[in-house]
Design brief:
The complex is a heterodimer of chains A (187) and B (168).
Chain A: H1 17-26, H2 32-40, H3 44-63, H4 72-84, E1 89-94, E2 97-102, H5 103-121, E3 124-132, E4 135-143, H6 148-167, E5 173-182
Parallel strand pairs in A: 4-5
Antiparallel strand pairs in A: 1-2, 3-4
Chain B: H1 5-27, H2 30-46, H3 57-75, H4 97-101, H5 104-115, H6 119-130, H7 135-142, H8 146-167
Helix pairs in contact in B: 1-2, 1-3, 2-3, 3-6, 3-7, 5-8, 6-8, 7-8
The chains are: A alpha+beta (187), B mainly alpha (168).
Domain RNA polymerase sigma factor 70 region 4 type (chain B): 109-160
Keywords (chain B): DNA-binding, Sigma factor, Transcription, Transcription regulation
Family (chain B): Belongs to the sigma-70 factor family. ECF subfamily.
Chain lengths: 187, 168
């Protein structure tokens, strides 16, 4: 049996299902002529009624407030400042001269490497990256139940391995700080 | 509009709530949404030269956060099977259980259904149906014509209706 809400194609009356779905989503005022037709049409009326029933759930979802985690704006500001601050320079000796890499570049590279690792493993989330002379500190929110020690060790190794080709012997110390815990999905 | 550091910080304070809401609706996971918000603001700072003062700042920021969220979604599985989306996933990590309880089963089902859609279908749905942007505004964020947006939205709406039917 087919579902009148989602089956493609025109209805026997010639009206397009897409237009009825749009009418349910946008309201009758968006197309009064179609609304008037659908109200009297035995083909359109059930399709529209079903779509409107489902769309009421979408509107209800849209109306529910989604609270922002406390302090998120400040953490976002800190993240931005970490990559735009004046910062120092990591100097790498090379034959015939020196390579100078801004700390903000180190911060961005460390952030990318850490995020990549955490996305792959799912053990936690990056909450901050701060740099200092010869150091990078990664702030983590770990998933509840994740063994912290091995996660930190593997994360540090991954970040160091990512930075080493660029910075050689001047690769910074990578500290890991656990700043939060997130709970696993329930259900 | 000159986006010097002070002006940019004001943007962060003013728009982080909106960025988080969009990220959460697209990703379906509070912790990942926070990742997206941080990355989006860094991307916005680094790409601030691309912001033209004659465009609405909200359009630019919607574009940044949706692009960042899409990148996050591409890094993980492209589509989550319906039975793999936990019922409480949207309500699992934030410290205001009373507020989250208001989400209710019906609204939660909508978010779970959206989380099962192809990422490219989520963006127009979230911006139009949940954020309440006009067609013109959504088209501006996606940088497509309104007629192209209509086609994308039709497919996304039909997909959402089918998922909602599965969740009944």
């Amino acid at each position: 049996m087919t579902d009148p809400r989602t089956d493609p194609g025109a209805l026997p009356c010639g009206r397009d299902r897409a237009d009825l779905v749009a009418l349910a989503a946008d309201g009758h005022a968006a197309d009064p002529a179609l609304a008037e037709h659908a109200a009297a049409c035995p083909h359109c009326a059930p399709v529209l009624a079903a779509a409107e029933d489902d769309w009421a759930r979408v509107r209800a979802a849209a109306a529910v407030p989604l609270p922002t985690p406390p302090g998120l704006a400040e953490r976002a500001l800190a993240a931005v400042r970490a990559v735009r601050g004046a910062g120092g320079v990591v100097e790498v000796d090379q034959e015939g001269g020196a390579l100078r890499v801004s700390e903000r570049v180190v911060a961005l590279a460390a952030r990318a490497a850490a995020a990549e690792y955490l996305a792959d493993t799912g053990g936690g989330h990056l909450r901050s990256v701060t740099t200092g002379p010869g150091t990078v500190e990664l702030g983590l929110a770990v998933r509840f139940g994740t063994a912290i020690d091995p996660l930190a060790e593997r994360l540090r190794a991954h970040v160091l391995a990512s930075l080493a080709p660029h910075l050689g012997e001047r690769v910074p110390v990578v500290d890991v700080r656990v700043v939060d815990v997130t709970h696993p999905p329930s259900g | 509009m000159a986006l010097d550091p002070e002006a940019f910080d004001d943007l962060v304070r003013a728009h982080t709530d909106r960025m988080y809401r969009v990220a959460l609706r697209l990703c379906g996971d509070p912790a990942e949404a926070e990742d997206v918000v941080q990355d989006a603001w860094i991307a916005a700072w680094r790409g601030r030269a691309s912001f033209r003062g004659d465009a609405a700042v909200s359009t630019w920021l919607y574009r940044v956060v949706t692009n960042t969220a899409m990148a996050h979604l591409r890094r993980r599985r492209p589509t989550v099977a319906l039975d793999e989306v936990p019922a409480g996933r949207l309500t699992d990590a934030q410290p205001s259980p009373e507020a989250w309880a208001l989400l209710g089963e019906r609204a939660s089902a909508v978010h779970r259904a959206i989380a099962t859609l192809e990422p490219s279908q989520r963006v127009p749905l979230v911006l139009r149906e949940l954020e309440g942007l006009s067609y013109k505004e959504v088209a501006g964020v996606l940088q497509v014509s309104v007629s192209v947006l209509h086609k994308r939205l039709y497919r996304a709406r039909v997909a959402l209706l089918a998922k909602l039917e599965e969740l009944r």
